[in-house]
Design a protein that fits this description.
The chain is of the alpha/beta class. The protein folds into four domains: 20-36 and 187-330, MoaB/Mog-like domain (Molybdenum Cofactor Biosythetic Enzyme, Chain A), CATH 3.40.980.10; 45-57 and 157-185, Molybdopterin biosynthesis moea protein, domain 2, CATH 3.90.105.10; 65-148, Molybdopterin biosynthesis moea protein, domain 3 (Molybdopterin biosynthesis moeA protein, domain 3); 341-412, Beta-clip, CATH 2.40.340.10. It has seven helices and 28 strands. It has helices spanning 20-30, 169-177, 216-226, 241-254, 271-278, 312-330, 379-384; strands at 37-41, 54-55, 65-66, 70-73, 77-91, 106-109, 121-124, 129-131, 134-141, 147-148, 159-161, 182-186, 190-196, 200-201, 212-213, 230-237, 257-261, 282-285, 289-290, 295-300, 303-308, 341-345, 349-351, 356-364, 367-370, 387-391, 396-398, 403-408. The strands form eight sheets. Strands 7-4-6-5-9-8 form a six-stranded mixed beta sheet, with no helix packed on it. A six-stranded mixed beta sheet has the order 16-13-17-21-20-18, sandwiched between helices. Strands 22-25-24-26-28 form a five-stranded mixed beta barrel. Helix 1 runs parallel beside helix 6 and helix 3 runs parallel beside helix 6. The longest helix has 19 residues, at 312-330. Bound molecules: adenosine monophosphate and magnesium ion. Magnesium ion binds next to loops.
């Protein structure tokens, strides 16, 4: 893998507020796969990312076969009554079609069995009566009825899955069906997660009156796992530059990419941005997004660092909107645009131009409702929500019943 360049997050000079789409386009052009690959049995490759295109070694189905239990013979038959004597053999699924079925005779054949030579049409067993070794039925039946052609699903040599695809249960079926036993997949992306801030205490600890519990780390661990990566817990550090430096060093050893929360702005206690700056590989991305604060993006010892805002609502939205597609690329997967859909608003709202807004939202009774408060400190609203409503950069006035874009958590891949 070519390493990411130290200036991979650099912004053009004079940029103040970067529109969301531009920020995404920048991430998309600058980031690439940072993990190696390994070979796995197909059955063990669920949710793993293909490292190569896969061609079908074999057609599916490999031979023409029957889609039903019934009786096979050559050619269709017209209107009226038909009587065809049966040969002695049967064709169960899996049997090798060797002997030819003589013209004017039929053969008992079971679902999935290859059509023997001399058979191109199958009548359903429910549509015939069998008497004295002869089938009796009423036409018409079309030539080719109830059969499947060789390769009608997949031809040998077809590309069945492309590099960068995250394998689904259905993909495992397809790969297996065309005779693929092993696949080359990307090694899992390890994502370090680090909380910063003097005010934070850990669950189970006593909290002083001014202290708060670390909410971001469990949330980010959950998000990273749901996005299909491996969270590496780098713990919590106080707002101390040397302590943070040591922890980032550790993170660069243990993870492929580091997500920090807190300390990412340009203030005195914002040691994440200060250290990334010192490393000469930092850009403070002021993206025109609400909720959101500056994102400190940089490189630490060759590993990309996403300095997320400390505010849990902003941290989660930034992880979904920017982190998820960025991690996809780093993991060797395709870029992923969030999959939302237009639904009727169960709320009214006016917004100004110049900033994209994400509202905590969920679907009820065919409408999307939004959380009562947009307060960015409301973690309860994140928990209440089942996705986000995305309002465009432009000014907008939403009335009850208007169409707005709803992106469920799963639409972000989370
Ligand atoms: P900062 O980005 O460090 O200025 O933090 C912004 C806000 O987020 C402050 O109110 C912090 O107390 C809060 N915050 C930072 N980190 C966390 C965390 N891990 N869990 C909950 N709140 C946090
Ligand atoms: Mg802080």
């Amino acid at each position: 893998m070519p390493p990411l360049k130290n200036d991979c997050f650099a912004l053009p000079p004079g940029v103040h507020w970067t529109p969301v789409d531009e920020a995404l386009a920048d991430l998309r052009t600058r980031l690439s796969c940072v993990v190696g690959d390994e070979v796995l049995p197909v059955a063990d490759a669920l949710d793993r990312i293909l490292a190569t295109d896969i061609n079908a070694p074999r057609a599916h189905p490999p031979l023409p076969n029957t889609a039903v239990d019934g009786y096979g013979f050559l050619n269709g038959r017209g209107e009226g009554d038909h009587h065809i004597p049966l040969v002695a053999q049967h064709m169960p699924a899996g049997a090798t079609p060797d002997a030819s079925v003589p013209a004017g005779t039929a053969i008992r054949i079971l679902t999935g069995a290859a059509l023997p030579p001399g058979v191109d049409t199958v009548i359903l067993q429910e549509d015939v009566t069998v008497e004295d070794g002869t089938i009796h039925f009423t036409g018409p039946i079309k030539q080719g009825a109830n059969t499947r052609k060789a390769g009608e699903d997949v031809e040998a040599g077809d590309v069945v899955a492309r590099a960068g695809r995250s394998l689904t249960p259905a993909d495992l079926a397809l790969l297996s069906a065309v005779g693929v036993a092993e696949v080359s997949v990307r090694r899992p992306l390890r994502v370090g997660i680090l909380s910063t801030g003097d005010e934070l205490v850990q669950p189970g600890d006593d909290a002083g009156p001014g202290q708060i519990y670390d909410a971001n780390r469990p949330m980010l661990r959950g998000l990273i796992a749901r996005l299909g990566h491996v969270p590496v817990d780098l713990g919590h550090v106080i707002d101390d530059r040397e302590a943070l430096r040591a922890r980032l060093d550790l993170g660069a050893e243990q993870a492929d990419v580091i997500f920090t929360s807190g300390g990412a702005s340009a203030g005195d206690a914002d040691h994440v941005s200060a250290l990334l700056n010192e490393a000469g590989a930092m850009a403070l991305w002021r993206v025109a997004i609400k909720p959101g604060r500056p994102l400190a993006l940089g490189m630490w010892q060759g590993k990309p660092v996403f300095g997320l805002p400390g505010n849990p609502v902003a941290a989660m939205v930034c992880t979904l909107v920017f982190g998820a597609p960025a991690l996809s690329l780093l993991a060797g997967a395709d870029w992923k645009n969030p999959q939302g859909f237009m639904v009727h608003a169960g709320f009214a709202k006016t917004k100004k131009a110049g900033r994209r807004e994400f509202l905590r939202a969920r679907m009820r009774e065919g409408q999307v409702e939004v959380f009562a408060s947009e307060g960015s400190g409301r973690i309860s609203g994140l928990s209440w929500a089942e996705g986000l409503v995305e309002l465009p950069d432009e000014a907008m006035s939403v009335e009850q019943g208007d169409l707005v874009r709803f992106i469920p958590w799963a639409g972000f891949g989370a």
